[in-house]
Write a structure and sequence with these properties.
Elements: H1 4-17, E1 25-31, H2 35-47, E2 51-57, H3 59-68, H4 71-85, E3 90-95, H5 108-130, E4 132-137, H6 141-146, H7 151-162, H8 166-181, E5 185-190, E6 193-198, E7 205-207, E8 212-213, E9 217-220, E10 228-232, E11 237-239, E12 242-244, E13 248-252, E14 255-260, H9 264-271, E15 280-286, H10 298-301, E16 307-312, E17 332-334, E18 343-346, E19 349-353, E20 356-357, H11 367-370
Parallel strand pairs: 1-2, 1-3, 3-4, 4-8
Antiparallel strand pairs: 5-6, 5-18, 6-10, 7-9, 9-15, 10-13, 11-12, 13-14, 15-16, 16-17, 18-19, 19-20
Length: 371
């Protein structure tokens, strides 16, 4: 007997999120071997006339693979998987595992090769730009531990978040998308943060369950050379298997000219991956009503109610500021009072204070109106 919550989630992913059509090839990418949801997804894709294809992988195996891989091997690996991705109309990525730091000791040169030669062409260029895709985490005891919750309580939280009424959220995002699309100057103020930039003519994109589950953000991007000031993030972030805390960036004319954290050396190595890694590719405002605290999982953390993220690296095609990089690192600043508060201004008008939208047309995105 299938868990009814898993069946509902699989139906939402295949139906609402990627809208599987008859004849669609759909790659179901299971990282961490969470097989029950995979079985539900196969059934739901097939019900809609799609053709499911399944990839099973494990982070500990990937760690060993990358540690011993050569440049030529990664290039051939990418060529093979890119050919497969080019034949897909849909992609559902289910990510789980028992250790978020599994890749932390992969040699940095091997991680750089993997990101540049594999992840960038297969996922950032092909999957993101040319398929209907959605990515989600699956609840595990390690995720519950990161969230400081029991496994059972975390599963209840997870299904509240992931089976939210995203169609309702989508409608509530329209006014914010419209406002961001006509905004020029943005100012962000929080403890350790005073940042200005322009989003003029970049546009804005709604995120309401069609790309990520959980979801709940509207994103844009700064004009590439317009960012000035300082931002200090108050949410930890895992990147390439390392957990970073207290990240702070200083910008001059768009470029990160100073970067510090609990591991400043490794932080700057990431930012030195290529020229675009020191420029920002995304600015987004998060508002999922069920996600309140960071849990070292970016698919959740970037949607935290009352948060924003300001992302070094590659810009998305939908809100393209021209920045190109093998990096796309969503870093989160929470502005609710218990995290120090803060304000967002659009063209000198306060739009959100201490995590709460204050403009009447945006109040539909406050937590009490989305649950």
């Amino acid at each position: 007997m299938r868990d009814a919550r898993l069946q509902k989630l699989a139906a939402n992913l295949a139906g609402y999120s990627i809208d599987v059509q008859p004849g669609d090839n759909v790659l179901i990418d299971l990282i961490g071997l969470e097989l029950e949801l995979g079985k539900c997804l196969i059934e739901e894709v097939t019900k809609r006339g799609g053709r499911p294809f399944v990839e099973l992988s494990d982070r500990s195996v990937l760690r060993t693979m990358l540690t011993h891989a050569t440049k030529e091997q990664i290039e051939l690996w990418a060529k093979h998987d890119l050919e497969r991705m080019e034949q897909m109309q849909g992609y559902i990525g289910v990510r789980s595992g028992s250790n978020v730091n599994e890749l932390s000791d992969v040699p940095k040169e091997k991680m750089r090769l993997y990101e540049q030669l594999y992840t960038h062409p297969v996922h950032m260029e092909e999957r993101v730009k040319r398929t209907k895709w959605v990515v989600l985490r699956y609840p595990t005891p390690s995720m519950a531990q990161l969230a400081n919750m029991s496994t059972e309580a975390f599963e209840d939280f997870y299904f509240d978040v992931c089976n939210l009424d995203y169609a309702k959220m989508d409608r509530a995002q329209d006014p914010l998308q419209a406002l961001m699309s006509r905004t020029d100057k943005v100012r962000i103020v929080s403890p350790g943060t005073d940042l200005t930039f322009s989003i003029k003519d970049i546009g804005a994109k709604k995120c309401s369950g069609q790309r990520n589950i959980p979801d709940g953000e509207v994103f844009s991007a700064p004009v590439r050379d317009s960012v000035n000031g300082v931002i200090t993030y108050n949410s930890p972030s895992v990147y390439s298997g390392t957990t970073f805390q207290n990240i702070s960036f200083t910008f001059e004319n768009g470029k990160i000219v100073n970067a510090t954290s609990n591991d400043t050396k490794k932080l700057n190595e990431i930012l030195d991956s290529d020229e675009g890694a020191r420029y920002i590719g995304e600015f987004a405002i998060g508002f999922n009503p069920y996600i309140l605290h960071p849990m070292n999982d970016i698919l959740f953390d970037e949607k935290i109610a009352g948060s924003l993220h300001f992302t070094p690296g590659q810009a998305y095609e939908e809100t393209d500021n021209g920045n190109r990089s093998s990096i796309h690192w969503d870093l989160v600043l929470i502005q609710r009072p218990e995290y120090g508060g803060g304000e967002i201004y659009f063209d000198d008008v306060l739009i959100r204070k201490d995590g709460v939208f204050v403009l009447p047309e945006l109040e539909g995105l406050n937590s009490e109106n989305l649950k």
